[in-house]
Recover the amino acids of this structure.
C-alpha cells in the first residue's frame, strides 16, 4: 500500500514541478537555517567533560567588606589568594585546583624563531587529573613541585610541535622570561568546550599552550590576565597579590557524590564563619557550590547572539512551514475531483488521508536533504567567521538525525491540515461537477 | 471596488486565505524586528570614538627579560625619539589602554573626598605628553596638559597629589550639569582638577553596564612601554602600513631582547573593524534572513494566487463574457491581495510588538520605534503587489470564450 501511495505521490509531484520545487525549496531553507543555528547552539552549550562534569564543582565565598552589602546578593565569581590557598590546603575534596591565566614570553632555542607570547595557565597539581587532560608524553607535576615552586612546565601538542618538532620533549628545557623550565609533560589533543575552568579569558578559546605551577608564577612575577575585582583600600598591585583584598583566582573541586557535595557546602559555611570570627570576613556566610554545568548556565556562557539566531531561524522555519501548508492545501483541494473518484471507487477517508500524508512526507524528505546541504553550507560559513567558536561549528550524528526528524516531522505536520481538509470532500459532489 | 464580493469569495477559501494572512503576519513581525536589530547594530558600529582613527597606528611591544623600571623608562624615551623620527610620523606616544584594544580600566569618580560619597566607575586613559595631539582630540573648553604636569605611573598609583585630568564632554555634563567643568575638581586619584574638556572621548571598549559609553577621562602619565602601547600619528593614511613596518624595524634594532610581533601592530581602523566584526556578521545575517523570508513569502503568494487563478478560470471567463474588462480582472486579484496583506500586516504589527517585548526582556534592546511598523507595512504591501502581478496578469489574459467551455 505504502509503495502505491509513494508512486501516486511521485506522479503528483512530477505533474506540477514548479510548485513541488517551491515547496521543497521553502522547507529546505527553513530546515537549513534552523539546523545551522541549532548546531552552533548545540556545540556551544555542550558538556566540556562528558562523564565527569557532574563531579566538578565551583565554590564561591564572600570575603568582601560591608560596603554595598545586600543580603542575598551573589558572592564574587572568583576567590582571593588567601582563601584559595586555604581551601586548597584544607583538602576537603577528592581533588582540587587553584588557578589563573596569563601570558608568558617564550624564547625558543632555535635561532630562526623569534621570541613569542604563549597563553599560559598557572595552576596546581590536581588540575590535569581532575579535568581528565590527556597526556601524549610525560605527566603533570605533584604537590611537592607546587610547594617547591618548581620550574616545570606542561605544554600542549601545538607548542611542542612548534618548539620541539613534535618529538617527546619531556626533560627538555623551555626558556620563559629568561628562566629555564623543564618540560615534564605534553598534552594530547584537548579542547574542552566551553573553556569552562576560566570563563574570563574567552568562553570558547582553546586551552592555553603552557601550564606552570601557580607558586612559580608568583615567584617569577609572570604576567597574569583575566578579571580582578578589588574592594576596600586595596588595589590590584602586582607585588602584593597574595595579601590584596581582590578576587582573581578560580578554584575548582572534585566531589564524587551528593553527600560529599553537601558536606563540602557545609565546610564552606563553616570556613566563612571561622574567617568571620577571625575578623577577615565581615559579611555573614554567603557561599555557593555550583556544579560545572550550573556554573556555565549561571554565567550565560552561550553568546546571546547565538540564542537570537536560533529564535530567528525557527521564526523563519515557521514562515516556511505556513507557506508549505498553504501551497499543499491549494494543491490537494485542486485535486478534489481525483480524490472524489478514488473515494467513489472504494478508498476510505483513511486511505486518502494516508496517501496525502505520504506525499507531504516525500516533500519533507526532499526538503530535509536540501536543508542538510544548506546546513553544511551554513556551517561552512560560520567556520569562516572570526569568532573564537568558529572552528567548532560542525555537524555531528545527533544533529544529522535531528535534521531529518525535524524536516519530515515538520512537513508531515504541515501536511496534516491540507490532507484532513481534502478528506472532507464529499465524493458525490465532486463526481457530479465533473 | 467590489470589496464585498472579494470578501465573500475569500470566505470560500477561508483556510488558504487565513494561512496567507498568517504567513504575511509572521514575515512582517520577523522583518520588523530584524530591521530594528540591524539598525541598532549599525548604530553601534558607527559610534564615533572621538579619536582621529584614520591617521593612527598602534604597535605593542613587550620585553622578554625583566629590566629595572629606570632602564625601561629610558628605553621608552629612546624608542619614542626613534618613532617620531620616522618619515611621515608627526607624533608618537605611549598610551594605555588604547581605543578598541583588549583592556579597559575604570576608577571610581566622586565629587567629594569623603570615602562614603557616592562614586561611579569611569573609564580612564593614561598617556604621555603628546597624547591629545596624537589622538587628534578636540578641546571643548579649558586647556591641554602642560609638560610639567606629567607624572610617573607609580606616582599616580602611590597617591601623587594634584594630578590634573581631562574629561569627555558627556562626563562633564553628567557631573556638572549646566556648568563649565574646567576648573572644577573630581576625586579619582586623590583630588584631580579638571583642566580641560574634550568634545568626545569614549570607553576603549564596551564593558557590561559599567557606566555610559561616552564617559571617559585622561590622566597625564609618562608610561613605560611595558605598561602601554605605542601610538603613532601618520600624516598620510596611505603610509600607515609602511610606518608599521618601519616602526617594527626600528624597535627591533635597538634595546634589549623584546617581543616585536606584527600581531600587535595594526592601524586603528583595522582595530575598529575587528572590534565590531561580530556586529557586522550579525547584521549581514539578519539582512540575509530577512531577504530570504521575503522571498519565501513572495513565492508563497505567487503559488497560492496562481492556484486561485487556475481554479477560477471559468468564473473569470464568465465575468469577461458579461462585460468585465481585463483591467477589472487584474484589479480584482490585486485588491484581493491587498486585503490579505492588510490583514497580515495588522496581525504582524501586534506580533512584532510582542516579539519586541520578549527581546527587550532578554536582551539589552530598546522598544521598537514606531516608524518600523509603517516601514514593515510598506515592504509587505509592495511585496504582495509585486508577487500577485504575474498571476493577476495571467488571470486578465483569460479569454471570455472559456465561459462557454464545459470544464
Amino acid at each position: 500500500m505504502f509503495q502505491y501511495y509513494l508512486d501516486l505521490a511521485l506522479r503528483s509531484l512530477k505533474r506540477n514541478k514548479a510548485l513541488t520545487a517551491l515547496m521543497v525549496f521553502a522547507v529546505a531553507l527553513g530546515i537549513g537555517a534552523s539546523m545551522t543555528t541549532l548546531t552552533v547552539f548545540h556545540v556551544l552549550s555542550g558538556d566540556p567533560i562528558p562523564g565527569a562534569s557532574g563531579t566538578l564543582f565551583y565554590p564561591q565565598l564572600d570575603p568582601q567588606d560591608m560596603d554595598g552589602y545586600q543580603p542575598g546578593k551573589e558572592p564574587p565569581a572568583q576567590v582571593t589568594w588567601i582563601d584559595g590557598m586555604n581551601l586548597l590546603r584544607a583538602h576537603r575534596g577528592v581533588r582540587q585546583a587553584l588557578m589563573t591565566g596569563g601570558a608568558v614570553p617564550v624564547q625558543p632555542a632555535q635561532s630562526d624563531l623569534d621570541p613569542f607570547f604563549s597563553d599560559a595557565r598557572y595552576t596546581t597539581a590536581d588540575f590535569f587529573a581532575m579535568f581528565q587532560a590527556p597526556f601524549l608524553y610525560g605527566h603533570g607535576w605533584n604537590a611537592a613541585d607546587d610547594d617547591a615552586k618548581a620550574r616545570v612546565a606542561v605544554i600542549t601538542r601545538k607548542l611542542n610541535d612548534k618548539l620541539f618538532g613534535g618529538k617527546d620533549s619531556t626533560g627538555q628545557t623551555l626558556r620563559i622570561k629568561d628562566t629555564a623550565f623543564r618540560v615534564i609533560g605534553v598534552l594530547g589533543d584537548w579542547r574542552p568546550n566551553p573553556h569552562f575552568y576560566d570563563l574570563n579569558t574567552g568562553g570558547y578559546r582553546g586551552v592555553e599552550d603552557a601550564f606552570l605551577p601557580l607558586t612559580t608564577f608568583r615567584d617569577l612575577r609572570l604576567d597574569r590576565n583575566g578579571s580582578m575585582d578589588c574592594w576596600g583600600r586595596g588595589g590590584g598591585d602586582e607585588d602584593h597579590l597574595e595579601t590584596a583584598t581582590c578576587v582573581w583566582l578560580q578554584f575548582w573541586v572534585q566531589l564524587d557524590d551528593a553527600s560529599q557535595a553537601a558536606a563540602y557546602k557545609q565546610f564552606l559555611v563553616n570556613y566563612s564563619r571561622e574567617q568571620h570570627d577571625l575578623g577577615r570576613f565581615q559579611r555573614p556566610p554567603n557561599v555557593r557550590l555550583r556544579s560545572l554545568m550550573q556554573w556555565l548556565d549561571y554565567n550565560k556562557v552561550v553568546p546571546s547572539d547565538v540564542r537570537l539566531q536560533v529564535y530567528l531561524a525557527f521564526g523563519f522555519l515557521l514562515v516556511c512551514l505556513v507557506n508549505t501548508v498553504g501551497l499543499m492545501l491549494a494543491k490537494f483541494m485542486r485535486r478534489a475531483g481525483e480524490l472524489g473518484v478514488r473515494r467513489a471507487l472504494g478508498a476510505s477517508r483513511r486511505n486518502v488521508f494516508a496517501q496525502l500524508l505520504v506525499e507531504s512526507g516525500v516533500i519533507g524528505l526532499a526538503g530535509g536533504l536540501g536543508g542538510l546541504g544548506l546546513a553544511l553550507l551554513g556551517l561552512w560559513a560560520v567556520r569562516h567567521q572570526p569568532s573564537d567558536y568558529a572552528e567548532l561549528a560542525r555537524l555531528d550524528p545527533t544533529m544529522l538525525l535531528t535534521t531529518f526528524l525535524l524536516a519530515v516531522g515538520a512537513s508531515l505536520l504541515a501536511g496534516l491540515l491540507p490532507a484532513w481538509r481534502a478528506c472532507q470532500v464529499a465524493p458525490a459532489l465532486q463526481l457530479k461537477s465533473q | 471596488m467590489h470589496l464585498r464580493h472579494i470578501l465573500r469569495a475569500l470566505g470560500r477559501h477561508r483556510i488558504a486565505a487565513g494561512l496567507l494572512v498568517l504567513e504575511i503576519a509572521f514575515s512582517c513581525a520577523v522583518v520588523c524586528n530584524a530591521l530594528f536589530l540591524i539598525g541598532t547594530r549599525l548604530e553601534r558600529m558607527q559610534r564615533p570614538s572621538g579619536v582621529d582613527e584614520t591617521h593612527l597606528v598602534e604597535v605593542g611591544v613587550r620585553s622578554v627579560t625583566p629590566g629595572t623600571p629606570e632602564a625601561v623608562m629610558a628605553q621608552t624615551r629612546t624608542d619614542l625619539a626613534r618613532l617620531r623620527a620616522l618619515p611621515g610620523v608627526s607624533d608618537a606616544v605611549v598610551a594605555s589602554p588604547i581605543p578598541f584594544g583588549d583592556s579597559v580600566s575604570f576608577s571610581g569618580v566622586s565629587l567629594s573626598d569623603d570615602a562614603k560619597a557616592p562614586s561611579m566607575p569611569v573609564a580612564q586613559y593614561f598617556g604621555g605628553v603628546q597624547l591629545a595631539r596624537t589622538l587628534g582630540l578636540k578641546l571643548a573648553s579649558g586647556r591641554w596638559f602642560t609638560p610639567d604636569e606629567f607624572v610617573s605611573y607609580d606616582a599616580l598609583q602611590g597617591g601623587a597629589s594634584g594630578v590634573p585630568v581631562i574629561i569627555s564632554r558627556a562626563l562633564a555634563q553628567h557631573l556638572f550639569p549646566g556648568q563649565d567643568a574646567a576648573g572644577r575638581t573630581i576625586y579619582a586619584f586623590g583630588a584631580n582638577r579638571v583642566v580641560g574638556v574634550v568634545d568626545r572621548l569614549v570607553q576603549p571598549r564596551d564593558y557590561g553596564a559599567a557606566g555610559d559609553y561616552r564617559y571617559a577621562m585622561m590622566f597625564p602619565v609618562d608610561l613605560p612601554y611595558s605598561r602601554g602601547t605605542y601610538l603613532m600619528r601618520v600624516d598620510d593614511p596611505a603610509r600607515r602600513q609602511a610606518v608599521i613596518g618601519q616602526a617594527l624595524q626600528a624597535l627591533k634594532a635597538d634595546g634589549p631582547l623584546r617581543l616585536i610581533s606584527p600581531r600587535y601592530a595594526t592601524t586603528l581602523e583595522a582595530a575598529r573593524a575587528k572590534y565590531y566584526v561580530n556586529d557586522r556578521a550579525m547584521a549581514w545575517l539578519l539582512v540575509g534572513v530577512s531577504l530570504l523570508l521575503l522571498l519565501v513569502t513572495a513565492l508563497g503568494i505567487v503559488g497560492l494566487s496562481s492556484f486561485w487563478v487556475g481554479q477560477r478560470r471559468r468564473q473569470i471567463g464568465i465575468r469577461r463574457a458579461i462585460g468585465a474588462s481585463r483591467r477589472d480582472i487584474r484589479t480584482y486579484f490585486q485588491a484581493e491581495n491587498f486585503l490579505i496583506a492588510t490583514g497580515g500586516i495588522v496581525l504582524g504589527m501586534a506580533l512584532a510588538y510582542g516579539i519586541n517585548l520578549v527581546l527587550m526582556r532578554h536582551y539589552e534592546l530598546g522598544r521598537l520605534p514606531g516608524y518600523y511598523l509603517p516601514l514593515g507595512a510598506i515592504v509587505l504591501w509592495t511585496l504582495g503587489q509585486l508577487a500577485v502581478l504575474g498571476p493577476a496578469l495571467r488571470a486578465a489574459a483569460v479569454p471570455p470564450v472559456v465561459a462557454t467551455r464545459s470544464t
